[in-house]
Structure formats: structure tokens, C-alpha cells
Amino acid sequence: MNSISENRSGLPGLFFWEILIPAFVFGILSIKWFVPSLSALLIYLFALLFIQPEKGAALLLLVLFGVGNWYGNFVLPPGPDAMPEWMAHREKVHLSGTIHSIRGVPGQQLKILLEDVVCDSGSGLTRLGGLLNWTWAHPDQFPYVGQQVALYVRVKPIHGFRNSGLWDYDFYCRTKDIRYRTYTKGKMEKGGLKPYAPSGLQKLRTNLREHIQKNAPPTQGGALFPALLTGDRFYLSNDSVELIRRAGVSHILALSGLHVGFIVALGFGLSWLAGLVYPLIYLRFSRLQLGILFAVIPVVLYLWLGQFTPSLLRAVCMFAFWGLLMFFNRGRVLLDGLFLAVILILAVSPLSVFDLGFQLSVLAVGGIALFFPKMAKLMPSGHGLLPRAMRFVLTLIYISLCANIALLPVLIWNFGVVTPNMLFNVIFVPVLGLFILPVCGIGGLILSYISPDAAQILFSAGAGVFEWLLTLVQDAANAGMLPEFAVYRPHWEGLLIYFLLLGILFMSLSGRFNNARPLIFPLILLFFLRLYGTSCPERVRMDILDTGQSQCVVISGPGGSRTVVDGGGGFGNNFDMGRAVVGPWLTYGHLPQIDNIIMTHGDRDHAGGLAFLLEKFSVGRFYSNGDIPSGHVGERFEAVFRKKEIPTEVLNKGDQIILEPGLVLETLHPYTEFKGSRNNRSLYLRLVWNGHPLLAISGDLDRKGIKELLKTGEDITSNVLVLPHHGSAGSFSPELYERVNPEIVVAACGFLNRFKFVARKIVQELEKRKLHIYTTSGYGMLTVEWNKDGDIEVLP
After folding, report:
1. 11 and 114 belong to one structural domain
2. What is the pLDDT of residues 291-312, one digit of tens each?
3. Helices 385-415 and 356-376 meet at what angle, rounded to 10?
């Protein structure tokens, strides 16, 4: 049956039940992305009609899509309940809860999920539904799962950056039933961990962790071993993680299929040794079967040591099915094992389809299963040492290439950057799999109970090798050998186009291009659909992004020009607003190009995100008030200006920037001789289109700056006013609101921010003037459009 199917279609002979699974997956995905998921299902149906028709498949696929949609909605947890008054007022409360899970993350932080959370606000008890995400930075002790804790903290509902076309953090947390969050640092005040008697297995895991920590050196190389053996990245620095990412080997830190593969390889090594000691064992089991049997216990132990993380559970599930298929000498191990694992995972946790780790695992294995056999034909032949070494290196490269071919659009969509640095896989993967993990990690851990001195030698050797690898990466980065590019992030039509092209490529490589010809029709249809989606009437558009307690405004002209005024920022050196939010939003359906960047002043909450744009985007011109940021962000600015010839200009009152014919940004403040604080020297800009004053952007102007602006007596009217200084009390100015005379007022401010912006007296003044105020904290990203007559529209 399989061979007939292969001859007919060029597909790898999918069973009927395997054909049905994607429809159920599309159905679950449709609870979040209905139109894209339904379109994917219809294209899938169309492809099956011509490539691998099965009787009754169309009806069953439609039914399964509906079942998936119903079931996804049925199991989707609710969002946070109505916010209690004490939470809205940012009051601290006495919180008690039970630890559900613990995860160590880089920078010495613990991410702890609490369940059964009860908050005492003084006026009564509030029981919170779902889970609460507690971030504990620099903890003074390590807790246990199941232990109770008491905290005195502020609690907030889960609330991410809400910008169209970006990863939806709120929805992701909802799929995990995480509804609230809090944060502490160091030793806890007015609370702490309750006494707890851990189970024997918990004690053992803690003991193993302590043995690793005690015997591994206190370096970044030593910090690798908790990450490899237990999934605990607590001691890794953010700089080390960044170097690993730049090298294109981030997968070495995720306890996943790669690490389980290393453990399985140990089983096959034991099988080989058993054959040397007792050759007759091969009369009962083949070396392959024996290797699978020897791998079972190490894999289960590794799963337990890694604390049953979702990525590790997925990997072990896949390897379990692959092992069973191989043990009974079944063919098509990768593909059939993948489908069986997906069924089991979806049966237990259907919302896993929204987990990026699950998506990457499935796509990577699928890409390897489909394309590696084609690329393996390019391997050199021969039995000498050189041909074997070349085959080993090429195997690593081809596997990485096949996986990345399938992963590419999902990685681009989620991260907006590409790091085409696969060659470091050739060094990291074998060194990690053959030496650091099995010899230094597992060997060192075992020896730590027998001979601590010998264990320290092994751990130190592995740590030294890893640090040498990091030095290689750092040298390559300094030499410009690790390029990183901001790239076009496709809309859903683009994602489907990519996978259709991938299907056509696979069919062509299988010698079945004629079967793939019908796929050209939906390909063309999607292409024109995307073109239609980009066409729009002549309009000017303003988007003020949701960047928390910071500000970023993007102006799009009727001719397609794009101008970024400020880039958001803040949140310390470990969070780059440009990389995480602004850059990906700008490349959603666009090339990484900006005509103008304007920085109203050098505060990090306005300038921080611009460094990434200057580094990775093609930028026409850069304008500022002459105030360049200080610290690390300022260093990045200076490095970019040295490296890239971006024209720069300092703006003063009276200067104009012509964005497009008829579309002008006027500079109304500050004048050259003005003396004031950094905030009060912010640029005040007004956007005018064919004589219609559309928009006023006022940076962080406070009383003195506003007073100087108003003193001039010039016309400063605008349809839309972006409130100065995020709506702070210090920027309160009834005269400004009178003179601008806006139809709409907007403010960029963080959700439940500690400054309590927008200030109450500003809200009251605007209400008195019958002006509605839109805030990014309340609405997320705000979009305003003007047609050629100057009519204004606020988009949802």
C-alpha cells in the first residue's frame, strides 16, 4: 500500500490517519487565527485532491477541523477575572500560594508558577484563579515544588505588549492558565518559604543539583552543566546566552531532541560495549535493538532530572515512538514516529500547538524526514578516514540545513531576525554530544559521589572547552563573521506561500513535479490576495506602539514613506525594545527600511529601541535635538554612526522635514539658545499634510518647555495631540490643550505604571473639554488615519 502511494504521489506514503491529523491541528489553531487556519485547510484539501486522493477524506477533514475548533475553545482557560480594586490601585497585599513549577533562567532569576493563590488586602481575602507567575531575582534560597510561600507584593494581571502582527503574550499565557504576575528581588520581606518536607525524589534531585554546583567551576563554562543536565539556566549570564544565539546554536540550551539524542547515543555505546564483552548477545538482539533497550533507563532518568519540562517531554515522546518502530524493524521511523508523538501530545495537551517549542520541534523533524534523504545523495562515497570525516561533517550541516528550511518562516515571524551561522553547529554539536555532556557532565556527576577531585577535573575540563568555544564565537562576532539581519516578516499569506513552495520543491526533488503543478494555482491566488491586502487609498497613518512605559510613534505617508519618532525603551540592559517589539513590528509586511528616524531627546524610554533600528535597518536620515543617550545605548549609537554613513541632523525651531511632497514635519521647539532639562529640550513636532495640521508629538516636555512653546504665539493646532511626558502631572497645561485644540488625545504609558500616568488632573481637564483620551495602557497599539481631505479615523 505504501509503495503504491509513493509511486502515485511522490509523498512519503502517508497513512490515512496521518493525512487527517493536520485538519485537527488547523482546527485548534483557528481559535486564534481563524481565516489563516481555514485557508490552510482549504489549500490542504485542494492539494490532496490532486496529489493523494483518499475516499471520504474531504468530509472527514472538514469535520476534524470543526472538532478541533470546538475542542480548542472548550479547553482554553479563561482570562483574568475582573481586577480587584486593590490591584488597580497598585496596593501591596499579603499573598500565599503553593509552588506549581520552578524554572531557572539566565541572570540568576527563578520563574515560579504559584497555584491556589490567596491575597489579603486588609479589607478582605481574594482567591485568584489560575496560576500566578512569580519572578524571583537573586533568590537567597531555592524552593521546592509543592512548598507553600507567603509574600508581601504587588500583583498585576498578565499584560504584554499589544501590537498587531506580533507574538501575543497574553494569549500564550492564557493557554497555560497563567493569569497574574508579581516580582521580588533578594531576601523576601514580610513573608518567606513555609517549612516543607520534600519527597525522596525531590531530595535526590536537589542533592544532584548541589553536587553539580559544588564541583563545577564558578564560571560560565561551569554554569553550562546545570543547564545541560537539569535545564536550569540560573547561573548563565545574558551575555553568554546572547553569544550562543549569535552562533546559531541556541538549541544546545533547550532540553530537547538534541540532548535526548545524546543520551540515546550512550545507549548505543553501551550496546557496542556489550557486544565486545559478550558477542553472543547479538544472537538474541540486534545491535540496534540492544541500543534501544540500553537507552530506555538513561532517557527516563534524564527526563526526571530535567524536571519533565514540556520540550523534554515532547522529545522523549518522539524518541519513544521512534525506538518502538526501530525495535520492530519498521520503516519510515522519523515520519511515522513524529505523527504518533503529535497524536499523543495533542491528546494530553491540545493547546501545545500554540507553543513555539512544539511548533519548532515538529517542523524541524518534518524538514529532516523529508529533505535529508534527498541531500544524503550528495554525500561523498568511500571508506577511508577522509570520506568518513567529510560525511560526518556534511551530515551535521545537512541536518541543520533541512531543519532550518522548515523552521525559517516561523523563526522569522517570531523573531524578525536571521542569523545564518550554521557552521558553528559543526563544532558545538559533536563537542557537546561526545565530550561535554556524556564525559564531563554525566561522568563528572557520577564521579562526584565517588571521587570529588576527579569530578572537579572533568567538570573543569568541560567548562574550559565550552569557554574556549564562547571565545571563538566572540572573536568571530568582533571580526564581523557572525552576521545578523532584520528581515521581512510575512503575513499569513506569505507563510502559506512559503510552505506551498516547499511542497513543490519536495515533489520536484522526488521526480513528481507534474503532481505538484496544481499547487501553483493556490500559490498565485495567495500572492494576489497579499497584493490586494497592501493596496490602500491615499492616506496618512500614525501608529503609536504599545511599548509599556515608553513611547514610539510611526508615521506612514500616502506614498509609502515611513518615519519613526522615538523608539521606546527602558527595562534595563537585558531587554531591547527595538529587537523585541519595534523592529519586528516595522518588518511585518515590510522590508527593514526606514526613511527617517527622529529622536525627540535622549532618555532611554524614547531612545533605547532606536539603537537596534540603526544597527539592523536601512535608514535614510537621523534627526535629533543633539542629545545622544548615555551608557550602553549611547555606545551603540556611537558605534553605528562610526560604521554606517547615516546622514544626521540636529533640529531646532523653524526646521522642517519634508517626508513626502505635501507632507511636512515642522519643528516648533526648542529654539537654539533654549536652556532647560533634558525633558524640556525635547523636540515638539507638528505633522502637516497639504496645509492640514494632523499630529503633534511633544516628547517629554514639562512646564518650562511647554511655557516656552506657548510663548511664541505661533499656530500649533493639530487634529491629534500626543500628550507630553506620557501624561505626567508635571506636563499639565490647559493652555496647551486650548491652543492645540485637538479632536483626539493619545498617551503612551505603561499598564498600571508606578507613576500613575495619565495624571488624574489631566484626565479631568480633558473630560471637561469633552476630549476622549486613548492610552496604550488601556487600548494597546493606537492607530489614527487621515484621508486626503483631512478627515480623521481611529482604527480598532
Report:
1. no
2. 889 989 989 999 898 888 878 8
3. 140
